[in-house]
Amino acid sequence: xxxxxxxxxxxxxxxxxxxxxxxxxxxxxxxxxxxxxxxxxxxxxxxxxxxxxxxxxxxxxxxxxxxxxxxxxxxxxxxxxxxxxxxxxxxxxxxxxxxxxxxxxxxxxxxxxxxxxxxxxxxxxxxxxxxxxxxxxxxxxxxxxxxxxxxxxxxxxxxxxxxxxxxxxxxxxxxxxxxxxxxxxxxxxxxxxxxxxxxxxxxxxxxxxxxxxxxxxxxxxxxxxxx
Length: 227
Prior knowledge:
15 strands, 4 helices, Proliferating Cell Nuclear Antigen, 2 domains, alpha+beta, 37% strand
């Protein structure tokens, strides 16, 4: 989430605690749901049973600061208490450590509307599905400083990745890195011939890192540029 946006959106519901983030251009969205059984004890809701669900957002940097140095936290912290105080506009995070030490962090938050990505993947003209490892090994060939990369569908079912060049006339004056992946390297391929999209490589790398660490496949849906 920290690689997506600068703000963390929290929404406690009966189904669990939802953490979401969106980037400044609202082109990248991430959401994680921690089910109630993930916690030793979980309570959600306001003072009234029919009260509207409370939502808020905090600065990502402030929230991550509570959990810095994870190896040390795993050795010293026995349990963590997360408490929302709407009347005080505070998110309280308590770390109960060894020897009776309790560290309390009071983070200021702002109330917000529900953050939800609305996009109908069934209407997309193209889709790809592949193990995250395949795409992670492909993007490693691009420099870390590269801002954007273009994914395109070529002849023979080949999928290409190349660094984005704004003016095609300038391609002869600069170094262009292009990598082609065969159709059999993907689990599913259903792309419109000649289609291509350009997107942020940094955000894509962050998504790949999570998917690869979690051993999850990655599915890409796209229609036309901007969708």
